[in-house]
User: Fold this.
Amino acid sequence: MANLRDIRNRIESIKNTQQITRAMKMVAAAKLRKAQNRIIETRPYASKMKEVVARLVKNSGDQNVLMRKPEKTENILFIVVSSDRGLCGAFNNNLFKKVQAHIEENFSAYQKSGDLSLVTLGKKATKHFGKRNYKLRDQDPNFYDDLEFSKVSEIMKEIVADFKAGEIDAVYLAYNEFKSVIAQNRIIEPVLPIDPSKLIGEESETDDSIDYIYEPGVESILDDLLPLHLNMQLWKAVLESNAAEQGARMTAMDNATENAKELERDLQLEYNQARQSAITTEISEIVSGAQALEEA
Assistant:
């Protein structure tokens, strides 16, 4: 009977776990809808900003400081956007593996010499890379507690200032792009210096029949718009990562709930078999006792 009691306790425990995972799935679904709305609102603005900057770059005579490649690349910076919380499957680990593989393949010498540093946004990235042989230039382990554009702007403002001062020669951004509830794209893209050829490639797809007049001038407008373009690039990456995280958590909790149901069914079958065996044993003992009394 002790075995039956243990099985019953396990079944109750699994039922409680199902309630938790089901509730977490519902919470993730609600957060995902909110995150998707923010992405939908941001994408058109970011796209139009990129288009305007591309047109300005094409008509610019002088090269802006944010587009100039240094003569020698000595310091590399990676901005890694992760989540603050777990229970979202391999969402974070897959990104970390890609970042580490990319660094090992392209910048292993910089890492060994200490010329490669990271800015980690999210508790999971801070914890992961902080325990390994990586130099953390800056970290925000509770980044999503107050997710605002102004917060992202301050981070990018400091990075741009360090780039202009020559303390950083190249900046890369790593994050999970939201594709669907069950899939994310792991992205590693260069941020600084800004590549004019990529921007002009974006602009070439737009209408060239309109001849714009710029006031006070292309260079002056670029001085203001390029930092804003970088802010939007990081902000969009953060929103993409947030939506992808909620989708991954929703999927993980749904799988956990289904696995718990399957385990409950197996345990219920085991419980029924054990109970039937116990009942059969008791009946056998009663019959044997009755026969013994009759013979006596």
